Amino acid sequence: MKVCVIGTGYVGLVTGACLAHSGHHVICVDNNEEKVKLMKSGQSPIYEPGLSEIMQGASQAGRLEFTSDLAMGVDHGDILFIAVGTPALPSGDSDTRYVEAVARGIGKHLTEGYKVIVNKSTVPIGSGDWVRRIVLDGIEDRQKAGEGGVSGEEALKKINAEFDVVSNPEFLRECSAVYDTFNPDRIVLGSNSEKAIAMMQELYLPIVERKFGEDRSLPPVPVVVTDLSSAEMIKYAANAFLATKISFINEVANICDKVGADVTQVAKGIGLDSRIGKKFLQAGIGWGGSCFPKDVSALIHTAKDYNYETELLNAAVNVNQRQRAIAVDKLQQELKILKGKVVGLLGLTFKPDTDDLRDAPSLILMDELNRLGAKVKAYDPIISQTGMRHGLPG
Ligand SMILES: NC(=O)c1ccc[n+]([C@@H]2O[C@H](COP(=O)([O-])OP(=O)(O)OC[C@H]3O[C@@H](n4cnc5c(N)ncnc54)[C@H](O)[C@@H]3O)[C@@H](O)[C@H]2O)c1
Question: What is the DSSP letter of 378?
Fold first, then answer.
């Protein structure tokens, strides 16, 4: 199938490369010319195990191209993925301006025929209908500039174009993004259009049938077909649950410290209960990274819009914030005075095997240690190798 992926970050580039590897013809679009230049030369702008190999193979087979020309991508793709960032605003709400710019751009360049526009970015609940409206605004802008005075729906008919929006949230984990794309636990598709869902099912068939998966004898990947809002909510609910699970074990760890119990033994003991499961039960300095903090706060923010106070999620966030302070408290208990001490920080990204420093807990620890007068010497195996693409504070 002919696919265009707009935004080539951790999600977009991995999705584009893996779809190309599985036989589709993919054009990846990014408005960052530097990134496009790098990808055209066969290099990945991000560190993700196995990604460069897949990119090079698919590019050599002629199934993967890179461009900064949105018009070219929109013209090529029958399926257009929006995979740009949705960082948190200071209010905690999701910043959807990049999604908006892409949706408007799609409208501006939409050509004759039927297209499926896929929200791969994590977007607030209700964004499916909003994206449709923005795309129509984009078409309307174009018509206004040309002949004037037509609505988006009329303009759509005039150019003989049709499109539907699908929500297809992403669950990959940075550090195993390629593996996760070929071995997903589930694929979620939200739309009110049967035609769009059928095209998405065809697109994902090689992955559903585990053609590139680790174990081809496993049953097909479950596909959850639902409405737009439920699909959008599934993404937020999944991340909020995982973040809460980590906060839960951190709370238990703090009580363990008081009563003299060993949290690693406790986590093992409860994790063997199949209703609980052993994953996400490692106590530590709390969750961070580019997804959990912003997605949990976006869900809290959405609930607020409906006058609903999220007691449990607020507590998960508070426990998480306190957890970083506990690490510094423990140091103070041991060293008494931190001023003038040199503190080594080993491992800076929010988890191993990624170069993503966004919202990494280490950054907060560094700031706090600096504030208390300690000198921080930091090392990370990936950041030290790949350079500081995401910028590290002094
Ligand atoms: N990173 C993850 O692990 C992960 C997992 C699941 C879901 N998500 C979601 O996926 C989305 C993308 O996340 P990411 O981590 O890949 O982001 P990212 O910041 O790594 O990549 C976004 C890319 O979009 C490009 N871009 C921005 N505006 C553009 C425009 N107008 N036209 C073309 N390209 C544009 C940027 O240059 C960048 O390369 C977010 O909504 C995120 O919440 C991320």
Answer: E
Residue 348 per-residue DSSP state: -
The burial class, CB within 10 Å (0-12 / 13-18 / 19+), for 344 is: exposed
Tell me which residues of the chain have a pLDDT lower than 70. 145-149, 386-394
Q: Can you spell out the DSSP letters for 280-306? A: T---SS---TTTHHHHHHHHHHHHHHT
Q: What is the CA 289 to chain-centroid distance, rounded?
A: 10
Instruction: Give residues (CB < 6 A) around ligand 1.
Output: 6-12, 29-32, 35, 83-86, 98, 101-102, 121-122, 170, 172, 174, 290-291
Burial (CB count <10 Å: 0-12, 13-18, 19+), residue 393: exposed
**What's the confidence (pLDDT) of residue 143?**
74
At 270-300, the pLDDT tens digits run 999 999 999 999 999 999 999 999 999 999 9
pLDDT of residue 145: 66
Q: Enumerate domains of the chain plus CATH numbers.
A: 2-226 (3.40.50.720), 236-386 (3.40.50.720)
Catalytic: 18? Answer: no
Could you identify the atom of ligand 1 that is nearest to the CA of residue 12?
Answer: 16
State residue 276 phi and psi, 5-degree precision. -100, -50
Q: Is the dihedral of CA 211, 216, 220, 222 positive or negative?
A: negative
Task: Specify the pTM.
Answer: 0.94
Query: Ligand 1: distance of its center to the CA of 169 in Å?
Result: 12
Quick one: which of 222, 198, 220 has its CA closest to 209? 220
